[in-house]
Amino acid sequence: MSKAKAVSTNKVKKSREDWIFDIILYTIGVLLIIITLYPMYFIIIASFSDPAAVSNGQIMFLPKGVNFKGYKQLASYAQPWTRYRNTIAHVIMRTLVTLVVNVPASYALSRKHLYGRRFFTAFYLIPMFFTGGLIPTYLVVNNLHLTNTVWAMIIPGAVSIYNVIITRTYFVNSIPKSLEEAAELDGANTLQLLIKVVLPLSK
Predict the structure, then answer these.
(1) What burial class does residue 198 get, using C-beta atoms within 10 Å of its C-beta: 0-12 exposed, 13-18 middle, 19+ buried?
(2) What are the phi and psi torsion angles at 176 (to 5°)?
(3) Three-state DSSP state, 126
(4) How far is CA 108 from CA 58, 111, 152, 171, 203, in A?
(5) What letter would DSSP give residue 175?
(6) Would you call 109 exposed, middle or buried from its count of C-beta atoms within 10 A (0-12, 13-18, 19+)?
(7) CA-angle at 164, arms to 171 and 147, nearest 5°
(8) DSSP secondary-structure letter at 151?
(9) Residue of 106, 80, 94, 114 whose CA lies nearest to 163
(10) Which of 88, 91, 112, 165 is the most exposed place for a label (fewest CB within 10 A)?
(11) pLDDT of the chain, 203 residues: tens digit per residue
């Protein structure tokens, strides 16, 4: 037992080079954290500091001339709250539309007996590498009369090829075939398999 303890303590001990490497590594990590977080910290302290001090570069680490006039003026405007509301609504609606569109497509592509599965897989993959660009996308949205509507932010990006591939791979590799076969023997159709078997296991 004493020999084992001696061996374990010898393994834990670090050499001088290891300590130097750890110090350099942690120093670089701390510097990267400071560089990343400082701009956000500066925005916060500048938001309730004297605007003249901010414009003159007098603020570095601590706020000067603390006041909340900017926040009061911002709260008096209705436009920012409308934008926040629109942002939240867009996120919720786009998430729902994306799930409704991508999950069935992924499930269909994961079925080996799907007729033309290779064609549809290539049909999905090609736009992932070759896109029409901004101007053709705008022309399509404009011709569909979606400009100046909420749907212009949702429908063009509803189909995510990357998400379809990831979800399809999960369905193929992670969902046990035996469960699907058992459900089929019990009389479940394809839609019931997706809703009652595949989706609950994919949460």
Answers:
(1) buried
(2) -65, 130
(3) helix
(4) 61, 6, 27, 10, 18
(5) S
(6) buried
(7) 150
(8) G
(9) 106
(10) 112
(11) 555 555 445 566 778 888 889 899 999 999 999 999 988 988 888 888 877 777 777 788 888 877 877 777 777 776 777 788 888 888 899 889 998 988 988 888 888 888 888 888 888 888 778 777 788 888 888 898 888 888 888 888 888 888 888 888 888 888 888 888 888 888 888 888 888 888 888 87
Amino acid at 55: S
Q: Please, what's the b/e burial string for 141-156 (b: 16 or more CB within 10 A of its CB; e: otherwise)?
A: beeeebeeeeebbbbe
Q: Are 163 and 99 in contact (CB under 8 A)?
A: no
Q: Which residues, including other chains, have CB under 8 Å from residue 31's CB and lie 6 or more apart?
A: none
Phi/psi of residue 51, each to 5°? -60, -35
- Phi, then psi, of 171 in degrees rounded to 5: -60, -40
> Pick from 96, 90, 102: which is nearest to 161 by CA?
102
- Would you state the structure tokens that stand for residue 125, as one six-digit string? 């993959």
